[in-house]
Amino acid sequence: MDDGALSFAKAAPMAFPFTPAVEAQTAPVWDKVKSRITPFEWRAHAPLIAEINRLKRKKNAVILAHNYMTPEIFHGVGDYVGDSLGLAREAARCDAAVIVQAGVHFMAETSKVLAPQKRVLIPDPLAGCSLASSITAEDVRMIKARYPGVPVVTYVNTTAEVKAETDICCTSANAVQVVEAAAAQWGTDRCILIPDEFLARNVARQTGVKIIAWAGRCEVHERFNAADIRELRAAYPGAEILAHPECPAEVIEASDFTGSTAAMTEFVARRRPAQVVMITECSMASNVQADSPETEFIGPCNLCPHMKRITLQNIYEALVHDRYEVVVDPAIIDRAAAAVQRMIDLPPPAQPARYDLVKARHHVDVEML
Ligand code: SF4
User: Fold this and answer.
1) Which residue has a Cα nearest atom 2 of ligand 1?
2) Distance between CA 197 and CA 218 in Å, rounded?
3) Rounded distance from Cα 149 to ligand 1 centre (Å)
4) I need a labelling partner for 260 at 20 to 30 A (CA). Which of 25, 250, 301, 332 fits?
5) Check: CATH 3.30.70.600 for 132-216+329-351+359-368?
6) d(CA 334, CA 330)
7) 3-state secondary structure 222-267
8) Distances (CA, A) of 244 to 106, 139, 190, 269
9) What average pLDDT does range 20-24 have in this prediction?
10) 129 in ligand 1 pocket by Cβ < 6 Å?
């Protein structure tokens, strides 16, 4: 952080007035988010939204907003919204000169890896991730030395340095497909799937490939348990309960459907349930609700403190001060891009993976590293 940035960070946030012009310009967003944001809050958000959208046009910038961003960011300033891989693909596809990543640091790195010629900014460089920080490149080199000939599949929630050490990446939407393709290509019945232990355990229930796992956890999803689900079911007997595969297996067993954030969104859009419980980060339900007003969302959510570091105010500051640029060593970029590209080159799954229909009937315990 340079001195200028420090002195700016101490300054009071810039206040823009809520004028009739701002009100009219942001009215379509307000219509979407007013069930989740009070009029009082909106009068503070709307002028910043208008100003950020003006700055984006001026600077040829786009904002990639993750599903876990707050509704005023997701619906107000996000040009592309979705899961981490979808956002990285947009980073490569879009023709903007500047990308502002409204998400955590590993996501900004993935955007830089797939779009190295573009300037990638993250509004708060301390927006980390418990999964990404659970494993280092040195750890992966140690794992490879211990299991020669066994493919290493890495969840996208990792640093670029970790991706650079691995054979192929996966997301929660395609992890089963990637594990099976890697095992077939390497001619083995085993696969290393790192760093999320619960995702690895949930994948192991879906495949005959033996899984070797790392003890990384998402601090948001690991806190849910089966008792939470039983309590929710008793309180909302008609509700569909949707869980994320970073949750423990006991949560998946107690839920009605388990899939990635994209799969959950698709489930609600297609099935239009009257009542839904989303077992994931808090903002997910708020953002999906804006597009599915006829569904009632129950939110037993856990906040991700890293995602919540990103605010309208620091997005505005990122655009004004052209900060904080995400830099990745070019040698790392090439190797990390190869691991991501191997995943992209696989035929897309017919539909995002489900984790609640247990296919593996054998003993599905995983080997822990
Ligand atoms: S929700 Fe979990 S996986 Fe996502 S950024 Fe937060 S800690 Fe990391």
Assistant:
1) 218
2) 9
3) 30
4) 332
5) no
6) 6
7) HHCCHHHHHHHHHHCCCCEEEECCCCCHHHHHHCCEECCHHHHHHH
8) 19, 26, 24, 17
9) 97
10) yes
The residues, any chain, with a CB within 8 Å of residue 135's CB and separated by 6 or more, are 158, 162, 194, 195, 214, 216
The CA distances from residue 243 to 20, 84, 342, 349, 352, in Å, are 42, 18, 28, 20, 14
Give tens-digit pLDDT for 23-81: 999 999 999 999 889 999 999 999 999 999 999 999 999 999 999 999 999 999 999 99
- Structure confidence at residue 13 (pLDDT): 63
CA separation for the pair 211, 196 (Å, rounded): 12
**Pairing between β-strand 296-298 and β-strand 275-279 as defined by DSSP bridges:** parallel
Would the CA dihedral through 239, 176, 338, 142 be positive or negative? positive
Confidence of residue 364 (pLDDT cuts 50, 70, 90): low
pLDDT band of residue 10 (cuts 50, 70, 90) is very low
How many CB atoms are closer than 10 A to CB 133?
15
Q: How many residues does the chain have?
A: 369
Is 3.40.50.10800 the CATH classification of the domain at 3-128+306-321?
A: yes
Residues above pLDDT 90, as percent of the chain: 81
- State which amino acid sits at residue 368: M
User: How many whole angstroms from 199 Cα to the centroid of ligand 1?
Assistant: 13
Residue 108 Cβ contacting ligand 1 at under 6 Å = no
List the CATH code of the domain at 221-298.
3.40.50.10800
Q: Please tell me the predicted confidence (pLDDT) of residue 369.
A: 85
> What is the pTM (predicted TM-score) of this model?
0.92
CATH 3.40.50.10800 domain extents, the chain: 3-128+306-321, 132-216+329-351+359-368, 221-298
Ligand 1 atom nearest residue 196's Cα: 3
Ligand 1 atom at minimum distance from 130 CA:
7
Contact 206, 176 (CB under 8 A): yes
CB atoms within 10 A of CB 101: 30
CB atoms within 10 A of CB 362: 8
